[in-house]
Amino acid sequence: MRILCLNYEYPPVGGGGGRIAHRINAELVRREHSVRVQTAGLKHLPAHEVVDGVEIFRAESFRKKEDTCTVPEMALYLLTSFLPSLRQVRQWKPQVIHAHFAVPTGALAYKVSLLTGTPYVLTAHLGDVPGGVPEQTAGLFRMVQPFTRPIWKRAAAITAVSTFVAELAERAYGRRPEVILNGVPLGPRPEIKVHSPPRIIMVGRLSVQKNPLLALRALALVQDLPWEFQVIGDGPLRQEMEDTTRQLGLMDRVAFRGWLDSSKVASEMSNSDVLLLTSLSEGLPMAAIEALDRGLAVISSRIGGVTDVVEENRNGTLCDLTPEAFAGALRNLLDQPAGLQKMREASSEMAQRFDLAPSIDAYEALFRKSLKR
Asked: Cα angle at 123 between 95 and 7, to 5 degrees?
């Protein structure tokens, strides 16, 4: 099968949504499908390259940063990628288009499909659905939602990366997506042994949505207990986090690592005990799935997007968005190594539900179904 993947961000550009798309595409190639990607380019990235058998085509998008995309930059992506996408369909003749993110990429898939008749499958992540990230997109959706309805209606099939995202989409558009959980290639079951002192890790973009300052304020309330904290990632709140760490007197226990490649992130997770997730909203956090694969307990915000990953009091704890709530959860774990060990073992068991192979099976089935339709 020939599959054209459209995504406004793709590694190394963007975050979890791009990594998810590449993981799916690489596995499809291993199953002997042909996959091309049309995405946004930056001046320092090649216009065409092949990674893990996936052909990647980048059109100049005038995007300024790899990890941030403004609304005007999304619009520029649509403008600069329209003709290249149309050319891909007319010359390469893919049998199906796979569009990640209803906004903005769905608009591109919709227009190309109208002109060529090629069916498209839409995958919703979170911020592209009304109510997913209200603190960032509420105003945007008030303006664009009337124009996004046709995108959802014309799609040959729709998927969502979590139960929570599927519920939001059905509420907004009256169409229930099929939930295909983000999968990862599972490694061998790790040997679980709690470190001394326990090692806590945070992985992701240091942005308002990820709410990382809450983690520091919670840790300041458990300074009497032993722990080490690693922050992997970067973003607009990096400097404020470092300033706050100094103000709280935590510099000797907190390490800021910046962005690391996937192999180094995996290695650091394998040497940790607890994933700390303080986000205001999540679709299905890839960091949490990767943490399960490495047997980490998860202390997370009580938000919809983590219900597929965290079973409270089994492999982690869900907390209200206050430093006191997170500090209480941390104290319970750090004070009881046997309980932490048990939660880590439960995470390792739960990782099996995120095996990549069944996820790819589900995508293949939807692609074939869309062809028949």
From this structure: 75
